[in-house]
Amino acid sequence: MSDDSRQADSANWFEASGVPHLLKSFRLALHPSVLTLAIAGILMTSAVGVVLDKVWIQSENGVEKYALARYLGATDAPESENTHGIYKIFRDHQLYNIRDAVESIRMGRLLGDVGLGASATIEHAPEKVGDGGSLPARGVAVDLILMARGVGWMFRAHTCYALLFFSALLLIWGQCGGAISRIVAIRLTRNEYIPLPSAIQFASRKLLGGFALAPLLPLLMTLALGILLMLGGLFMRIPWLGDIVGGGLFFLAILGGMVIAFLLLGLVVGGPLFCPTIAVEGTDAFDAISRSLSYVYGRPLRALWYASVLVVYGAFGWLFVRLFAWIAMAATHYFVDIGTGGQLANIWIRPTFEQLHRVGENMDGSSWFAGVLISLWAILIVTSVWAFLVSYFFAGSTVAYFLLRREVDGYDLSDIYEEDDAPSPSPALPASTPSTTSMPSTTSTPSTPSTPETATPPDENVGAVESKPGKSGGESTHKKSKKSKQGKKKK
User: Fold this and answer.
1) What is the pLDDT of residue 31?
2) What's the predicted TM-score (pTM) here?
């Protein structure tokens, strides 16, 4: 085999693996429009959580500092007053596990001791890590389990709060995530970025029936099946009849449990494809669920490969973005602090890689006002670092959807549902042809003279052929040919 053929085979294999397309996710996630949407989503989520926390605390429904850790089984959690917000505790828990998952990927611990997911300890609490402590790197699977249990804590211990909070999250991230997916989809297929308002308008049109409804449908179906199973259990409480009939038809309950498992697993593994499906196909929530589940269950190994590449690549990409932000903020602090004669350290504590922003203490007067303004800019940088993680999630999911669709359905990567928001290439100008009414050219060529009597009349079939593109064009051409014939007969 020649060297050229070997290079061609390796290039084809690399293209078929999807890695060249998956590596585009990092650059797509850093686009200003995409980052702006991610920052807006984070700020709106924080605003909803802060408002709900204030309402709950004022109504004396606050929680203690280590309530979530105690729910997860921590035995070394000290007692504290019920003055903390539910969102703040939940947010710190989730962000801490995300950072530990990234550290686990860096250390090569993908699974870890999964048994740790059933318990927790405050030895590596978020506030201790911020003060210079280290992340335990428990394993990606362990961190994902603890994050899921954090959601379960909110629903079990604070159901009303959880319903309000996650309903707002569906609307916020349905809007922002849908717009991000649309921008990335147009970029991948047309190599152009649509304007930010156009992406927002597209997401708004597809919000209620698509982006926000798609993650909710599997949960509603699961709840409906659960109610049917509970009714079956009530029927089995009837003496004799319930035991005999219920035992004979118990296979229906097992089938219901299998459908529930199918829906919940599909939500976990196929949920990231819901937004990209609607953004690419322009359909609704039902089609998004159908396509996502069929692609994931149809090519499970391929989907696992894409997810693994995206997770590892995104973890190192996020570490790079955080490193860049830390160097920028540390350099700013170092040189400005020299200029202020050490006064800046009293307002803004030197940033570390673990904690990019810390506010100084004992500020009063103008120093307090300066600290507030500096904090606003520092918080924007910190939010941008986390916003990259969000934008990368939607960008990578969109790229993975295109690759899975090509693998399962055979669609080209350039196929996409287009609206007015999609920039279309300008049509090429038609080649100029001499018109029948144009003036004769100055350079004449010898030609045989023709007489009107020998001129061949136009054939009727010419009009029929030209009428293919449209009905009206064909009819007008056909009428012209008939009129020319009648004129010649009169002559």
Assistant:
1) 92
2) 0.75
For residue 369, what pLDDT band results from cuts at 50, 70 and 90? confident
d(CA 205, CA 417): 14
Q: Is 168 exposed, middle or buried (0-12, 13-18, 19+ CB in 10 A)?
A: middle
The answer on pLDDT for 48 being more than 90 is yes
Q: Which two tokens stand for residue 239?
A: 């003496």
**Distance between CA atoms of residues 488 and 486, nearest Å:** 5
The answer to whether 112 touches 142, Cβ cutoff 8 Å, is yes
Query: What gap in Å lies between CA 461 and CA 296, rounded to an integer?
Result: 53
What is the model's pLDDT at position 461?
40
Nearest alpha carbon to residue 97 among 132, 34, 31, 141: 141
Neighbouring residues of 343: CB distance < 8 A, sequence distance ≥ 6 = 337, 367
Query: Mean pLDDT in the chain?
Result: 78
Question: Rounded distance, CA 457 to CA 146, Å?
Answer: 85
Determine the longest span between alpha carbons in the chain, in angstroms: 112
CA–CA separation, 189 vs 316, rounded Å? 26
The answer to whether 413 and 406 have CB atoms below 8 angstroms apart is yes
